[in-house]
Each structure stands twice: as structure tokens, then as C-alpha cells.
Design brief:
Elements lengths: L2 H19 L3 H7 L6 H10 L2
Protein name: DUF1127 domain-containing protein
Length: 49
């Protein structure tokens, strides 16, 4: 994997974590997400790029 793709994935991971962490517990619950799920969801999202 090239450096550009790696950086793109890392950026997407960080952005996803940041955005999900900014949500309140109720908002996360409405989405069916717990705080413990955030890093896994971010990894899965970044891996799709």
C-alpha cells in the first residue's frame, strides 16, 4: 500500500473517531453505537477506502 493511501486511511480514521466522539450518549444510542464501538467503526471505515 502506498504512502498516500496510508495517509488517507489514517486521516479518515481520525476524522471518524473525532466526529463520533463529539456526539452525545443519546445520539450514539440512537445510531446503535456505544463508545466502545467507535474505534472499531473508524477502523472499518478507513479500511474501505
Amino acid at each position: 500500500m502506498g504512502i498516500r493511501k496510508t495517509l488517507k486511511r489514517w486521516s479518515a480514521y481520525q476524522q471518524t473517531v473525532r466526529e463520533l466522539n463529539s456526539l452525545g450518549s443519546r445520539e450514539l444510542n440512537d445510531l446503535g453505537i456505544t463508545r466502545g464501538d467507535i474505534e472499531r467503526i473508524a477502523r472499518d471505515h478507513a479500511a474501505q477506502l
